[in-house]
Amino acid sequence: MFGPNNVLAWATFLPLAGAVLIVLLAGLRFSLGLPKRTLDQAARGIALVASGLSLVAAVYAWSFYDPHAPGLLVAGKETGVQLVQRAVWIKVFNVEWFVGVDGLSISMVLLSGLISFVGTIASMPWWSGAKDREMAGMIEDDGHGDDPHHPKHFSVRMVPGYMVMLLILQTGMMGTFVSLDMFLFYVFWEVMLLPMYFLIGIWGGPRKEYAAIKFFLYTLAGSVLMLVAIIGIYYNSAGATLIDGTATQHTFSLLELAAQGHAGQFAQAGPILGFEFTKIVFVGLFIGFAIKIPMFPFHTWLPDAHVEAPTPISVILAGVLLKMGIYGILRFNYGILPEATRWAANAIALFGVINIVYAAFVCLAQKDIKKMIAYSSVSHMGFSLLGMAAMTPTAISGAVLNLFTHGIISPMLFLIVGVIYDRAHHREIERFGGLAQALPEYTAMMGLAFFASLGLPGLCGFISEFMVFSGSFPVYMTYVIISATSVIITAAYYLWAIHRMFLGKLNEAYRGYPDLNWRERMMLYPLGAIAIFLGFYPQAILGTINSTLHALVENVRL
Amino acid sequence: MEQLLIENNLASVGWFRPELALTFGSIALFVLDLVWRRSPLRRQLLAASAVAVLVLAGAFLAQQPVESMPIFNGLLASDGFATFFKWLFLAAGLLTVVIVAQGDDFPSPRVGEFYALLTAVVLGMFIMASATNLLTIYLGIELVSMTSYVLAGLRRRDRKATEAALKYVIFGSVASGVMLFGMSYLYGLLGTADVLAFGPKLAELSAAGGAGAAATKLALVVAVVFVSSGVGYKIASVPWHMWCPDVYEGAPTSFTAFLSVGPKAAGFAVALRFFYGALAGPAGADGLSQSLAGIPWPAVIGVLSAVTMTLGNLTALGQTNLKRLLAYSSIAHAGYMLMGLAAVSALGTQGVMIYMLVYLVMNLGAFLVVIVVAQATGSESILDYRGLSRRHPLAAVTFAIFLFSLTGLPPFAGFTGKWYLFYAVIERASAPNGFWYGALALVAALNTAVSLYYYARIIKAMFIDAPYVEGGVEPKVGYQLMLGAFSAAILVFGIWWTPIVDWSQRSLAMLRG
Predict the structure, then answer these.
(1) How close does chain B come to A311, measured CA to CA in Å?
(2) Peptide bond preceding B239: is omega within 30 degrees of 0, i.e. cis?
(3) Rounded distance, CA A502 to CA A496, Å?
(4) Average pLDDT over residues B311-337
(5) Interface test with A, best of B405, B468, B498, B503 (most A CBs within 10 A)
(6) Do B430 and A272 count as a contact with CB atoms less than 8 A apart?
(7) What is the rounded distance in angstroms from the CA atom of residue A273 to the CA atom of residue B438?
(8) Nearest to A455 by CA among A442, A443, A469
(9) Interchain proximity B423–A280, CB inside 8 Å
(10) Is there a contact between A338 and A555 (Cβ–Cβ < 8 Å)?
């Protein structure tokens, strides 16, 4: 079923097919009168199978990808892009279905498949003990209906709708990473917005409405700026040929655009609003992506969204969606507008430093453990900004490796928060205490995730941080020294949180809480294993991304 | 000479068959209304005849030759551009008839009148779309206005509807009076009412110079501004938008739905033909500013566009009545479409055409949901949309699709329309002197984000809030089918828009001066 020419399409559309199937089943339920529970279970099953198969396709894609292959030739140059599938989609506007991966995107495809599947598992109300299930509110018919005093777990509320949204979200994420057509990219990018709004807005916490609309407005504001920039790039591009041989006047192909951008095509475009075309387009695109990262000062939507979102959505948000910002900047700004990138590099690095240090300090002040972790994501994404701005081979590899490692660690962290929230129904650090006595296995997983995140050698977070720092040091010495202080602050807030939550005298209210169940183990153990594995053998990822990134950096630096 | 005029008139009748079908159809509907006064099947029979009239007009329209050609000695034009808009009007009319036939907006004794007058409005819009003479432009606009006044107030006992009709009349007559005054100036200055002959006459006028040049210039500016008022009133652009929310709220919803798409499209057809087809000439935007007293008209339209969309969106933020909210949203959409007019280019024209087509489907769809909910709850307040996703999932989901499409998100058709408008503006932005187009694109982009907020408020009420009133919403099967078909069209044209783009591309042929 999966071959090199179609595996990316499978990975992208299998979740969507699952969503369509669930919608059809829901229609059947209304016409045939199936019991609600049957439909709920079927929806869960379909979602698991669809996103599991999508992960399998992503793994196949990873195995088909050869980092040393020359890949697609564009304008006489090897691009390293493989697994290409192309067809004309909208001929009147030269839009193609054009997917393919290079070293940068294949790592994100793998991450997206993995985290999507983890997120789907986290959406299941699996818990063997009836008493435990009741504690978490995972009883479907608890006899209270929609009574707000007996809140139900998100995983048993409006299940088919939830699964449909989750699967559409997965299609959007995968599609964004594999598109090599600018228009196609934008469509997938926007497709992610709607399900996210509903997932936070319907299945979220107490302030879900505020968080959902804030997320939606911030992201849309960014993406309309992006839209204008994309049209500007398209209009000023030179011609290319579509896959069916038609010569065109302009092109949406990201690879063609990169070749043209490198040849100085966009430097000739007329100024807009009195600014150079490349600079204004760079800024438009950059703001669009920076909101997603999120970069200071556009980061305020993230803590709200994370705190209100249900656990699996936080997992996906932190694990995949944040990476799209950096991915987009590398693909668009670095790829197409090298000159403007050089112009902006210092500013990017500065914003990176602000992200790293400012967010780390904010973490220190948090009372809510989920909010603390959300801000730690902001801080960690700053490493990627700093590393990519330095544009040395080590730094940029570290920046992208950081995407992957943070994509493994932060889902773990959010799962860990979800575990305690399912039991205690609050997340205030101060109200816990001595949990290590009640929940030893949980405490061990927490320790692994916290230490991985704060950069303990031997775990994956350390490698990427170290590569970013050492790679950026020759270029931005001051910035690196300032951001290195964050290592101490990070250690401080994590250790302090461990101290208050897990050590000391056990708060009697939490005695007798059940330790990890099998659903939670199924998610935490594999992620923990990957975190340890990459800590010792980062080459597994670096080997794939290095050649692409080094070529990219060469192009930008001239 | 006389002989020639008559011969031309006689020959032109062949190109005028759709309009003739509508004229006689409208009269026939009045008669049938009387004939079937006591028939038990009155409602059904009248609806069927109204559909038959519109379909007949469509059949004649389909046979229309494709070449561009002046008819009735240059009073009207028969060209692809007009035909495109005529199809839109027919579709809007037909869908309105189908909606009204199943609804209870109009009581049985009055429904025959409604169909007859609606057909007359469609006829007026046909004339607007092909008018190339100041006289026919005025004739078309007035025919549409007069009948619309009556239709808005057709429910005489409904106080809101009567108020709406009165406001509509007062605003409308002022606007058309001002327009007529402007037309008289134009005629006096240029010595012809033929819009297509304006180009050379204007060139003569500006070449003349002399002592009166400044006065002539002023008169010309005043005349164009005044003529625009009639058109601006039809498309509900700032500063001629004040009637819009009150009339939309007061008029029967099924007619409001028609009002929000039909006359707006007709107004844009006139504006495009007047500014782009006749005045601008082959030089496009530069031609437009040179021909009309050296005023940067494209920039003026651009400012109008920015103000219209901003005002529409900002005012919509605070609305709680769905019809008023959609009224302000329709003002904002007029602003978006004015971007296409401001571009004064073939691409801009095409953008407006595509947007209008998509807007027709999504706005009619949105109003259809308002009708469905109003039938079940008797209310148009956003409070009664709470929990709609649980009371009637189909209505809630399709409404969400229409609203996202109105926002302009892919993969819905509204994005297609917005994409073309943005593209038209950005194409001009890189031209010399085009820097303000960049600003316009930026304003429009921010407006899109603002508009999301109030559309999302409705979606939040439907999906997130708990039901405010219990009780299901059970729309008629016909409405359910229409909702399904509309949202399917929105999805299909969002993903596969080659057909509508091809069609609009073919229909760009416009009779030029």
Answers:
(1) 18
(2) yes
(3) 10
(4) 94
(5) B498
(6) yes
(7) 6
(8) A469
(9) no
(10) yes
Q: In the prediction, which pLDDT does A149 show?
A: 64
The per-residue pLDDT for range A155-206, each reduced to its tens digit, is 888 888 899 999 999 999 999 999 999 999 999 999 998 899 999 988 888 8
pLDDT one-digit tens code per residue, B216-246: 888 888 998 999 998 999 999 988 998 999 9
**pLDDT one-digit tens code per residue, A323-337:** 999 999 999 999 899
Measure the CA–CA gap between B369 and B401, rounded to whole angstroms: 11
| Nearest-CB residue to A209 (from B446, B464, B496) | B464
Task: Name the residue among B45, B44, B24 with its Cα closest to residue B116.
Answer: B24
Identify residue B417 by its one-letter amino acid code: G
The three-state (H, E, C) secondary structure of A20-56, written as one string: HHHHHHHHHHHHHCCCHHHHHHHHHHHHHHHHHHHHH
Alpha helices by DSSP H, listed for A179-207, are: 182-191, 193-203
Q: A with B: how many residue pairs have Cβ under 8 Å apart?
A: 95
What tokens appear for A427 in the block? 């997340």
Interface of chain B toward chain A, CB-CB under 8 angstroms:
404, 407, 409-411, 415, 419, 422-423, 426-427, 429-432, 434-435, 438-439, 441-442, 445-446, 448-449, 452-453, 456, 460, 463-464, 466, 496-498, 501-502, 505
Name the least confident of A95-104, A205-214, B201-210, B435-444: B201-210
Query: Which residues are within 8 A (CB) of B59 and not within 5 positions of it... i.e. 6 or more apart?
Result: none
Chain B residue numbers with beta carbons less than 8 Å from the beta carbon of A186 are 410
Place of tokens 């007029």: B334
Per the listing, tokens 């969106």 go with: B313
Dist CA A97 CA A185 (whole Å):
10
- pLDDT, residue A272, reads 75
Mean pLDDT of chain B: 89
CA distance A545 to chain B (A): 31
Residues B394 and B483: beta-carbon distance below 8 Å: yes
**Residues in contact with A495: Cβ distance below 8 Å, sequence separation at least 6, in sequence order:** A454
Residue, of A272 and B31, whose pLDDT is higher: B31
pLDDT for the residue B438: 85
Are the beta carbons of A193 and A152 closer than 8 angstroms?
no
Q: Which two tokens stand for residue B426?
A: 């950005």
Q: How far apart are CA A326 and CA A385, in angstroms?
A: 7
- Contact (CB, 8 A) for B118 and B97: yes
User: Rounded distance, CA A547 to CA A393, Å?
Assistant: 9
Q: Angle B354-B360-B363 (CA atoms, 0-180°, nearest 5)?
A: 125
Contact A234, A251 (CB under 8 A): yes
Q: Determine the distance in angstroms separating the CA of B411 from the nearest CA of chain A, rounded to an integer.
A: 6
Output the pLDDT for position B293: 66
Minimum Cα–Cα distance from B496: chain A residue: A90
How many angstroms away from the CA of A267 is the closest CA of chain B?
13
Is A271:A339 a contact under the CB 8 Å cutoff? no
**The pLDDT of residue A156:** 83
